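Two entries, shown back to back:
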Amino acid sequence: MKSSMSSRVGFPSKRASQAEEDVDCPCSPTSSSGPSFHQDTQPSPQSEGAQSASKAPASLAGEEQHGHEDRLSQRMSIPPCTSKEERIALSTAMPHPPVTKETLEELGLAYIQSNISLRIDINYDHDLQFTHDDGIKGEQKQQEARKYWQSLEAELRIMYQHNLYPSCAECNDLGSSNPTESTFFKPRLPEMFLNLKELLTMLIPDGEQGQLVQYLDIPLLLQELRHGLMDIVRLSGWICQLLTSHCAPIRDHDAQDMANHIREGAERCNVHTLVLGIEKLFALLEAMQLDVANHQVRNLRGSFIDDTVAFQQLYFQARISNGVLIVDDSRKWYRNAAASHQKLCHVVGGMSDASTPVALIHGLIGVCFSQNTPIPDTLSHDTSRLRTISAQFLDLVYVDISLWVFDHLLYRLAGPACNPSLIHGVLRMRLMILTDSDAASGLTTPEVWNRHAYAVALELTRAAFQYCQIAESTPPEAEAARTAEQLTAMYHFESQNSARTRAIARALEQTVHDYAKVYQGMTAQAISLTQRRLHLRHATSQVYRYLPDLRDLASRLAHIAVIHWRVWADLAYLVEYEEDEESDDSDSSEDGAESVQQEDGL
């Protein structure tokens, strides 16, 4: 790296010689033996103006440099010889790099402290950290980034190869054969340098900001760029040295790789490699900011959890007061859950009071009962968690149905002396693997299991034949078809009647209630630590989707219920409910009779 910082590398023109005719390079208008420029010996714009032969005022020198910047920022013509892909990129790519100060704003400390989703999620996600978005939005950002780097590569070719000479034979041929109106683009290099300086300012301590002033004088850099005098190898080497002194050790290789690509692109006159190095630089800056943000999240985790109830109450109270958040529908949802619990729930405890969220738990069980159940606004930040628990709960239901079919098949083949529970664990794993491929396809859990009914039946049949040590020559197809027919009928019956789902839901609700009674006397921090221990106990290295047991689901639901109740009981649920009770006590007997009639009608 030392050598890359020593002197400027001169770049021969793309058309400088026949031997280099097909080599791409950002070139200098001077020869390779011409004068070199060193950033550390170049005086500032003001001193340069003061010490010039003409003794021009410093302001005049500054205006001259800004003039260079303005000229570089003006629209440029796209030559006819430019490929269609590059023409599209130059015309449509975003004007700034994919990584900017604005795009990394959510990784700043102030944003982290005020991020309501993070402040809620940190209670439940024991490995919470910022990562790249791998979803649809992430793919769209990657496509935009690819177009930007393609446009930058085309821009360098046009500015420092094509435009160095007054004429281009290919452009003349294309222009004479197919004359078209010229199209233009605005150079992206000035904006790129400005964003680079902003990002480095974010990451470098205040005590070292002076280096940025010295090495990243944007008007001066743009003037060098205008005249083809920029020593990009030396600049990248300095950036590499600066970043490796502040980044995590794991990023050192990325910094060196970035500098190597830029040096290789410059020395070999390869614009593509050069731009790849610049792309790696911005990716490294983003990774460093991610590292900083995740370090802050780890350090603040304890205080965030301790303050979670007070912070959420303050945040949501402000939104309710401002009319941004309307909780009427959520209040109705809770009252319906309370009424349903009073009538149907088998959990001991009666109606909810200020400390026992049994009606809320009953409502959460209803959310898990079906993946299509609407979730109230007060639980909007828990939607992903509740949908995951719902999918896992329904997996438990369909695995239970499948094992019931297997048990009856085994009893028929081997008689009552068999013990099918011996291989239930292995079967659960196999069934989850069989149905894993469609888990993220947008299908509901019942649809996934119905789609794979025959494959599940075949696996159950093979396991039964293997358990009974039936000869391998015995074809299981007929038995598998029979099992598949029975399994499909059971799945269909469950989708229509939900008998087994209700039975498992009752068991789950009782277990959630047991956990909630324990969690009620614990702080948010203590509950989170308990959940972390349970998480580590159940954590596995399996690559297929996780099938939790009933107690695992119950502990997670109880955690959500207790924290949610502490936040929302006085904001939306309990206070209004008590007011309604007082209002009901003062109502006339006619109103009470009418209410009973309406309830009976429902």
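entry 2 starts here
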Amino acid sequence: MAEINTTGLEELSSAFMRHEQAADKAVEDMLQAEADEYVKALKHAAAGYNIRKTGGFIESIKAGKIKDEGTAKSIEIVPEGRADHGADYGGGYSNMSNKRKGKAQKGNVRYATIGYIFEYGTSSLAARPWHTQGLLQGEQPAYSKAQEIWEKYVSSTIS
């Protein structure tokens, strides 16, 4: 019978595990840094389109927590929360029989809904593509930050 002997296989296995954990941490740091850059760019784009009634919408744009989806990780950047006023994003408001689609008659409207209305517009409100513009503005700075973090990780694992 053939016989195989190995020495140091456990050490090699644990080294691979440490490397995987360090890479996982680097990816999370990259995602968080990219999200911060995109949030900054989205807020700047929204302010550039004068989407400011109370300032709540711009302040509501936030990055969520990092989610594990199997082997992938993701992070959502959305306007969170609700406005402390009724839906009033242009086109007038009448509490009579003039009900407009998407308008809350009572209660507060979600900031995500306000953002959607501003992005795509309505029949009486021109589109203000703050989201598209913000994503375009944030792409290069986010990529640069992520690349910087990854290069630090690679240089620390090589040396």
